[in-house]
Specification:
Length: 275
């Protein structure tokens, strides 16, 4: 009897240990991650969205491969911190909704950090300083600055800060496009009077031999781009920020910047501007 009782007690002890182990595993399955799991951004496959028709930041080269400043920044982050980020094409206006639901793990798409977007997604430290500009046909002598846009037809890319700026113009008809390439096409054929867009995008387009277009006068706003991440994925944000810090320190960021823009980057980038 004592032997049976002893055996029963041993079995109960084993079952209790097994139950505790199962309970711990179940707890992690419900969202309690171990220290190792918190670093999942390094080595896991991550999908980032990008509007891949926005040269020189993201576009398809002659071989159909993604190229551009943003694409090289992501490649450098992958190499530096061991992430495995794959970039897939997205309509720009669909990026923030996809991030809100964590349908994608991040977005790198020349996206300006704004207060409105910060309510919905998290951003990395700033990695690029941009300005808005006005593009018109080279023969246009009427529109010489942003102030001359009143009453004109203005093309913009939907969902961008260029659209926000254009909507401030009195009596203007603002025409949104899914891609800025479509806007440039309509500017060339006279379907719109001007384009409001990020300065480096307009400058790159002109430098590719499109000399029927020019930049008209002053540039509007000063904006910082950030890499956007769902609020549900702080480990991805940390990996991205760690990568940006390292490529700044080791000179890779400056190398990429000079390749695409021909000048040294502002001293603080990537990072917060000095107040």
């Amino acid at each position: 009897m004592k032997r049976v009782l002893g055996t029963a007690l041993v079995l109960l002890s084993v079952l209790a240990v097994m139950a505790l182990a199962v309970g711990c595993v179940g707890g992690r399955a419900k969202g309690v991650k171990s220290e190792g799991e918190q670093q999942a951004a390094a080595g896991d496959k991550l999908v980032f969205g990008s509007d891949t028709s926005y040269a020189p930041f993201e576009f398809s080269d002659v071989d159909g491969k993604l190229a551009g400043f943003d694409m090289e920044i992501i490649e450098a982050i992958n190499e530096t911190v061991g992430t495995d980020i794959e970039v897939v094409g997205y309509d720009f206006k669909g990026l923030v909704p996809a991030l809100e639901t964590a349908g994608i793990d991040g977005a790198i798409s020349a996206m300006t950090i704004t207060e409105e977007r910060l309510q919905k997604v998290d951003f990395s430290m700033p990695y690029y300083l941009s300005l808005q500009s006005v593009a018109v046909q080279a023969r246009n002598e009427t529109i010489k600055s942003f102030d001359d846009l009143e009453g004109n037809k203005i093309g913009v890319q939907a969902g961008t800060t260029g659209e926000i700026e254009a909507n401030k113009v009195p009596n203007a008809r603002v025409i949104p496009y899914d891609t800025i390439d479509s806007g440039f096409m309509d500017l060339n054929n006279g379907a719109v009077d001007a384009i409001v867009c990020d300065f480096p995008v307009v400058a790159y387009y002109i430098n590719q031999g499109n000399d029927g277009i020019k930049i008209a006068g002053d540039m509007q706003t000063s904006e910082h781009y950030g890499i956007a991440v769902p609020k549900q994925k702080p480990e991805v944000l940390k990996a991205v920020n760690d990568g940006l810090k390292i490529i700044k320190e080791n000179g890779k960021y400056t190398e990429i910047y000079k390749k695409w823009f021909g000048v040294e980057p502002p001293e603080y980038l990537p990072g917060e501007p000095q107040s």
